[in-house]
């Protein structure tokens, strides 16, 4: 994953490290569907990246986003319910709502300096299911294709979907970004068929390779960002 500000992996590793916090609402009696949670997390990342608080020269989040993108674009998904969720919503951020999922995204924070109400939320073991198989995605919409050979928890998959959406965002020009934003960031997250995965990863579409901090081996390919504006570049 490359940054729009620095393109050397060594420079990204040497830079101060930040993380983008995401919190998924996970009530005991109404957990979100897995696919909807992944899609909502991806839209949450895009919503923050396009927010004027993160893009304007004097935006309150602009410097934090710049510093984060200068380093590894790390994302961590934690879960909250009840009073935990209410405290999480009180912190500066943006809540994005899907069909069954709610995800709140926050401006990046130093890796070792999470707000206390977020730091105490659990991160591991976030498991979700789809009550029904996801529908075939609309071919006119962006699709974030998951590697069929890499198993991930729901929280890890949400973060990876966010990476894929961000890489697609970086590849688009201003007009394409504006069109996606104005449409409400439509997208789908699906697991690719093995043959399709081979084709998708052989072309120029943005490909997420995980740094290997949690769950999976370093360098593992996890997501291909298949945006219609980039799809025409496929061989």
Automatic annotation (TrEMBL):
Per the record, the domain of life is Bacteria
The reaction(s) catalysed by this protein are: an N-acyl-L-alpha-aminoacyl-tRNA + H2O = an N-acyl-L-amino acid + a tRNA + H(+)
Task: Please give the Gene Ontology molecular function terms for this protein.
Answer: hydrolase activity
Q: Which UniProt keywords apply?
A: Hydrolase
**Which Pfam families does this one have?**
PTH2
Gene3D superfamilies (UniProt xref): Bit1 (3.40.1490.10)
Give the EC number(s) listed in the UniProt record.
Answer: 3.1.1.29
What is this protein called in UniProt? Answer: peptidyl-tRNA hydrolase
Task: Provide the species name.
Answer: Actinacidiphila epipremni
């Amino acid at each position: 994953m490359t940054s729009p500000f620095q393109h050397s992996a060594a420079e990204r590793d040497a830079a101060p490290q930040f993380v983008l916090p995401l919190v998924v609402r996970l009530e005991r009696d109404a957990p979100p569907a897995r696919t909807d949670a992944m899609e909502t997390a991806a839209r949450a990342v895009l919503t923050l990246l396009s927010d004027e608080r993160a893009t304007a020269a004097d935006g309150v989040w602009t410097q934090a986003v710049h510093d984060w993108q200068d380093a590894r674009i790390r994302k961590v998904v934690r879960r909250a319910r009840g009073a935990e969720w209410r405290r999480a919503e009180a912190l500066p951020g943006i809540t994005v709502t899907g069909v069954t999922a709610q995800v709140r995204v926050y401006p990046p924070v130093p890796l070792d300096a999470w707000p206390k109400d977020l730091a105490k939320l659990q991160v591991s073991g976030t498991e979700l299911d789809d009550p029904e198989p996801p529908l075939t995605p609309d071919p006119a919409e962006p699709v974030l294709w998951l590697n069929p050979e890499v198993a991930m928890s729901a929280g890890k998959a949400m973060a990876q979907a966010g990476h894929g959406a961000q890489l697609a965002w970086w590849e688009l020009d201003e007009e394409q970004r504006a069109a996606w934003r104005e449409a409400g960031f439509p997208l789908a997250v699906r697991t690719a068929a093995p043959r399709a995965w081979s084709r998708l990863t052989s072309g120029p579409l943005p490909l997420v390779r995980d740094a290997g901090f949690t769950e999976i081996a370093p360098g593992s390919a996890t997501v291909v960002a298949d945006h219609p504006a980039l799809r025409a570049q496929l061989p």
